[in-house]
Amino acid sequence: MSLFAAEKPGSRLSRFWHKWRFHINVLLLLVPLGFMPKYFADAALFRGDTGLGEREIGEVQVGPWSLRLAELRNEAPRPDGPAGYMKSFNAALCDSCREQVKATYLRIGKPRSLRAAGVIFFGTPYRMGAMLPIPEKTKADAELWITMEGWDGAMHQASIPLSQASPATLEWLNKQGGKP
Amino acid sequence: MDPTLGSPQQRPSHRYKTLIMSKKSRSKLWFLVHSWLALPIWFFVLIVCVTGTLAVISQEIVWLANPQMRASQPSDDAPLLSYDQLIAAIKQAEPQILVESISRPDETHFALDVEVTYPDGRSVVVYVNPYSGVIQGTAPQFNFRAFTRALHGWWLVPFTNGYSWGWYLVSFLSLPLLASLITGLVVYKRFWKGFLRPTLRLRHGARIFWGDFHRLSGIWSIWFIAVISVTSTWFLIEAFMFDNQITISTAPVAPVVPRESVPLTADGSPAPMISLETAIREAKARIPGLEDSFISLPANAYSYLSVGGRSWYPLMFQTAEINPYTGDVAVTRLLSDRSGLELVTESMRPLHTGDFGGLWIKLIWFFFGLLLSMMVLSGLLIWTKRTALATANALKRSNKRPRAADATHVTSHDTTEVSQ
Question: A55-176, what's its fold?
Fold first, then answer.
């Protein structure tokens, strides 16, 4: 390496470059080093070590039952290919309703029937998750509807304003400027 | 490669004895290309090779470090517990725990990996003894296996929208690796003779030793470098296809249990599910040869129980989705369901990682991974001692004889650096 530098004296900068150009790629190590805190924070988030999600929404009463709802990430919906923008929510059922609730669903806007209750939660009653599609034209005053279905066929619903469920999503919708 | 490579070159002067490997400028060029492929990013290539090598045996390293992960047999004839017995044992020890999946690692000296959730919302893997059902411990927060894989596979760059750019960065290295293999074989004249007469001169100085080492490990690693570079080229293509919504998959869309087949109960308690052993028995009766090395319990009331394991073809898994209320096999994903193209592409990952045939295959992959890492290092050492000189000489020649300029054009990006 130093061979070339010796042949062509050049400026200080070019000498420096010739001496170190093959060592510069060591700097690529800064990339994983920089992402390491994020990597471990995500690992803890998915293990549930840091709670249900990055932002707890709180307890939501749904008929005789209730559930604790959280945003997996306190951030705007993420693009997911042709499926559009998605937002992940996590939930945990109340102690007394764990055995009674057959399924829990999320939807933006009031569902017309149980069959259109929205996306279903996957996981155990202690920790379950659902990926909710967020259309870009969602109105700022939209509501997040929670539908719970019992093993005996009962159905209960509740809603919370989207602004309460996910302020980051609302901010994102406002930034879109209400795209048609 | 540059088309000018094929143009007829003038015979070099014999004054330039430094280029001992070749007598023609053409192979000299191949040689320079070979030398320059990994050099500017040698450290990155080295770390990717080293982390990949570690990832191969990461599970074994954790096994060595963590006794909770070991499966000790209480007595020589102690039988393995069935899945139902395992869940019963787990429930007895910790009644609040909910099991999500159980998987039996390939090697019998590993405890079972059981994914569970706790009432406080933690979702973790616990190590369970396959003979006694005892929960031996919880997988530590720092998952060494996942970490080395993430570092090797995508340089820890998070996946936010499709594949992470770290994935592209790493898998892109497959191209220089493949090119190194090809150019290496081109410049190593009659390399097959190296198999018959292996040369590793220890007492002729570092340059000779590293040169011999590079060539010797190179020819014995031909198959391995080919496997690694081809499979990682596939990883690059796979990411590109995914991010551009191109799919070759024939797998059915994830199905749900039909609403009418999920029973209602009068007292509002969960509908009874068939036992895991019944489910597995029914699935095996329907699908001869189905293995049950893992089982995933339904993730909600409308999802199937999933059972699967390796087929006779060790690189691929077969799975069956079973209705947990009736035992009907709803969907299968068998070897025979794969298209010819999928047989090739789905084989890529196990071929890359070497985790398809137990410890010995892993050790072979580990050994050659180590060798490949050493080849990056030895290549660098050789370069610092020889190629610098060779490039300088090639340049001098091109300055003296402008007609040969197009020959050095190949290394233009290098020569511009050098001639500044």
Answer: Immunoglobulin-like (2.60.40)
What CATH architecture is B271-337?
Roll (3.10)
CB contact under 8 A, B268 and A100: yes
Domain ranges of chain B: 29-59+147-153+164-246+361-389, 67-139, 271-337
Structure tokens at B112: 């079972």
How does the average pLDDT of chain B come out, rounded? 87
| Pick from A21, A124, A152: CB nearest B417 | A21
Q: Which residues of A touch B268 (CB under 8 A)?
A: 100, 150-152, 154
Fold observed for domain B67-139: Nuclear Transport Factor 2; Chain: A, (3.10.450)
The pLDDT of residue B402 is 53
* A93, two tokens: 């059922």
What's the average model confidence in pLDDT over B162-167? 96
Nearest-CA neighbor of B57 among B310, B316, B358? Answer: B358
Closest to B379 measured CA to CA, from B51, B37, B47: B37
Residues B132-161: tens digit of each pLDDT: 999 999 999 999 999 999 999 999 999 988
Whether residues B141 and A99 touch (CB distance < 8 A) is answered with no
H or E segment and range at residue B102? strand B98-103
Cross-chain residue pair A151–B121, CB shorter than 8 Å: no
Is the model's pLDDT at B42 over the cut of 70?
yes
Among A104, A122, A143, A42, smallest CA distance to B296 is for A122
Common-topology check for domains B67-139 and B271-337: yes
Contacts of B384 in chain A (CB under 8 A): 1
| Cα B375 to chain centroid, rounded | 19
Among A8-17, A56-65, B163-172, the range scoring the smallest mean pLDDT is: A8-17
Could you tell me which of B353, B357, B362, B358 has the C-alpha nearest to residue B314?
B357
Q: Name the maximum alpha-carbon separation found in chain B.
A: 97
Three-state secondary-structure class, residue B416 = helix
Contact yes or no for A125 and B160 at CB 8 A: no
CB-based contacts of B158, cutoff 8 Å, min separation 6: A35, A38, A39, A42, B164
Check CB contact under 8 Å for B420 and A10.
yes
Query: Closest partner residue to A152 among B41, B157, B266, by Cβ?
Result: B266
Q: What is the pTM of this model?
A: 0.86
Would the pLDDT of B2 be above 70? no
If contacts are CB pairs under 8 Å, which of residues 179-238 in chain B contact chain A? none
Beta bridge partners of A66: A61
pLDDT digits (tens, 9 = 90+) for B174-227: 999 999 999 999 998 889 999 998 989 999 888 889 999 999 999 999 999 999
Query: What is the spatial distance between Cα B207 and Cα B386, in angstroms, rounded to a whole number?
Result: 8
Of all residues in chain B, the one with the smallest CA distance to A123 is B299
